Amino acid sequence: MTEQVMAAIDGSKFSEGVCDYAAWASLALGAPLTFLHVVDNHPQTAEADLSGNIGLGAREHLLEELSHLDEQRAKVAQEQGRLMLKAARERAIEDGVAEPAGRQRNGTLVETLEELQDEIRLLVMGKRGEGAHQASDHLGSNLERVVRTLHRPILMVPDAFMTPEKVMLAFDGSKTTRKGVEMLAKSPLFDGIPVHVVIVGAETGDNRSQLDWALKMLRDAGHEAEGAIRAGEVEATLHGYQEEQGIDLLVMGAYGHSRIRHLLVGSTTTSMLRKAKGPVLLLR
UspA domain: which residues (predicted)? Predict the structure, then answer.
């Protein structure tokens, strides 16, 4: 089955950014684009039970009415989703994508993406969904669950699109980030875009060797690449370098698999995502 760029959209303010970044990625990768809307008929917060202390007949009638309302809500949600998919496809066509597709599914976003992940080359998602708190440093729970579940690259995007002009890879010599370097070297996604490779740590022979390997891999593949080794706390150092160099897009490894690595790397990943103002490409 053809691997594609898949973009998860909902009614949040991030959906426009998702559409535009997905179109950009689809064109850069030469991959088909599919927009996905999932209708979740199981609300996260339980509604109050209004049927308790009333007569039996009235209770049955109320339950019938509530059931009818649930059906109506589901129909409205599906119709809203169809309209959103139509608008997303039209926007992608304006961005230059020839034949973007749309799919609507019932269920939860995480379970749906897990089912479809064999079809996904790159998943594009907004930082938060329509049901999330809108504080600027808040991260949508759906995004966190998807990142922990899916074994595909995920591009987390802001609500407004800007064509990436500089990319930074947070590199630590681990298997995940070495794989990331190899993926970036082979991928057409960042063709013509300078790549900065940054190691946070001491200026040691091992770190210098790791950095030289990464830069050679990227340059041999035709990329313009430069690197730096910076001492300091990971998040502050990476954010500082990003601002200093005017980096548009951050690439980093996502959560690890072992429990200890999950706690160490996972917390850093989540915090970086929360504080990111621009797009972040997460590699698994």
Answer: 1-158, 210-284
